[in-house]
Amino acid sequence: MKAKVAVCVLLLLGCEPNFALLCKSLLPRSARSAQWQGSSVARSSSKCGTGTSSRGRSLRASHIEEGKSMIESWLGARLADLEIVPRPAHLTAAVAREKGNMPNFLDMFRSSAPYIRMHRATTMVIHIPGETLELGIFNYLMDEVALISMLGARIVLVVGCRPQVDAMLASRGLPTQKLAGGRRITDPEALSVVKQCAGYMRFEVESALARGRTGDALVQTTGGNFFSAQPVGVRSGIDYGYSGEVRRVETEKIQERLAAGDVVHLTCLGFSPSGQVFNVETEELARICAVKLNASKLIYVTQGEECLWDRSAGHTVLSLRLREAAALLELQRQRAAAADGDWRPPPSPRQQAVVDLIGHCVEALQQGVKRAHLVPPVDGGLIEELYTREGAGMLISRDIYEGISGADPAHLPSIAKILAPLTGEFGWAPVKSTALEQELDAWVVYTKDQKVVGCASLHLYEGDESLAARGATSVAEVGHLAVMEAYRAQGIGRALLGYLERMAIARGVERLLALTSGGGQWLVERGFTIAKPDEALPAAFATRRAASQNGGRVYVKRLQGVRGIDADELLWDIGGADAPRKK
Question: Are 267 and 226 in contact (CB under 8 A)?
Answer without folding.
Answer: no
